[in-house]
Design brief:
single chain; alpha/beta; DHBP synthase; Rossmann fold; 2 domains; eleven-stranded mixed beta sheet; four-stranded parallel beta sheet; 11 helices; binds threonylcarbamoyladenylate; binds magnesium ion
Length: about 325
């Protein structure tokens, strides 16, 4: 692909103009940065998939500024989606709805459904409103890598591949939205996020967790689940806690000198602290599971910048945002 001169902008109307003309603009949201393109413009979308190196069978989420704009994205609003949006929008929730024909087929990878999200982030909503078109926006990272949660990391990943980055705040939540399929009966949780299963079920008790029976089923229902995700260059191990990580790290090399070398090539993060912390190439203790979610992807990126090869991450308990964090850690640690 030809290299673009990526600019960093502070001016929302300039960024909106680029989107309207079919360009690509990365912008902050409360979950992760999104890489925006006009969801009704085929050539803008082709550039978006190329810039990310994203497989074309992985559908994009479409963003609007206000809930009542859903008719530009979806044909109908299932009653369960209405209930969920009334409670959680604007916010870190994506509802999968019957797709409107004005949304390009490439957005939804040919599916007859479309993901809709209204971010709870004033700069993002002003940008989308000013663009005046529905905005398709996957996470703003090269496909397969951890999502970008700061504008500097987004630039590091996508410089020369997109038109602009709108300078914005570090993402408050730090991991991607909860995705709920509202077309299937019963409705299904496709991707856990900041809004927990318990919170969803308090509004929609009939909601179930989706577990693909095989690859074909996953392709039909949530194609994105099949691709590698959230993986830094370092090999990730998800562990119960620091003592398991310490044991695993120590069990590797035989001699004392080799052990020292090996530990410098390892990193640990979690809610507890590694006894080996002072020997490691990097380590980070989070005060809460929310802080863990907020900072995980940036920690992964910093580990890669240091050239560290092994990253051990503690699995938190599955309460609240912990379930989503575990999902991301499992995928980051998966050999595929
Ligand atoms: O928080 C977020 O959701 C961020 C911000 C930018 O809004 N976006 C994001 O997009 O994480 P992306 O492309 O990285 O993840 C989109 C997820 C994928 O797992 C995809 O499979 C699923 O949403 N998805 C999108 N449309 C779908 C559809 N029609 N049916 C099923 N799953 C869908
Ligand atoms: Mg993504």
């Amino acid at each position: 692909m030809t290299l673009l001169n990526t600019i960093v902008l502070d001016d929302i109307s300039q960024a909106a103009e680029i989107l309207r003309r079919g360009g690509l603009v990365a912008f902050s949201t409360e979950t992760v940065f999104g890489l925006g393109a006009d969801a009704t413009n085929i050539s803008a979308l082709a550039k978006l998939f190329a810039a990310k190196g994203r497989p074309s069978d992985n559908p994009l989420i479409v963003h609007v500024a206000e809930v009542d704009q859903w008719p530009i994205v979806a044909r109908t609003m299932p009653e369960v989606a209405e209930r969920l949006l009334a409670k959680f929008a604007p916010g870190p929730l994506t509802v999968v709805l019957p797709k409107h024909s004005s949304i390009c087929d490439s957005v939804t990878a040919g599916l007859d459904t479309v993901g809709l999200r209204i971010p709870n982030h004033s700069q993002a909503r002003s940008l989308i409103a000013a663009a005046g078109v529905p905005i398709a926006a996957p996470s703003a990272n090269r496909s397969g890598l951890p999502s970008g949660t700061t504008w500097q990391t987004v630039l590091e990943d996508l410089d020369g591949r997109i038109d602009a980055v709108l300078r914005g705040s570090t993402c408050a939540i730090g991991i991607e939205s909860t995705v709920v399929d509202c077309v299937s009966k019963p409705p299904r949780l496709l991707r856990p996020g900041a809004i927990s299963l318990a919170e969803l079920q308090s509004i929609a008790p009939e909601l179930r967790v989706y577990a693909p029976t095989d690859d074909r089923d996953a392709t039909a229902n949530s194609p994105g689940l099949r691709h590698p995700h959230y993986k830094p260059s370092a090999v990730v191990h998800s562990v119960e806690g620091a003592s398991q990580a310490d044991r695993m790290m120590k069990s590797q090399p035989k001699s004392a000198a080799k052990l020292e070398q090996h530990l410098a090539n390892c990193a640990y993060c979690g809610l507890d602290e590694s006894k080996l912390a002072s020997y490691l190439g990097a380590s980070r203790r989070f005060e809460s599971v929310e802080e863990y979610a907020h900072a995980l992807y940036e920690f992964m990126r910093s580990v890669d910048r240091l050239g560290i090869q092994f990253l051990y991450c503690q699995r938190p308990s599955a309460r609240g945002i912990g379930a989503a964090l575990n999902d991301r850690l499992t995928r980051a640690a998966s050999p595929k």
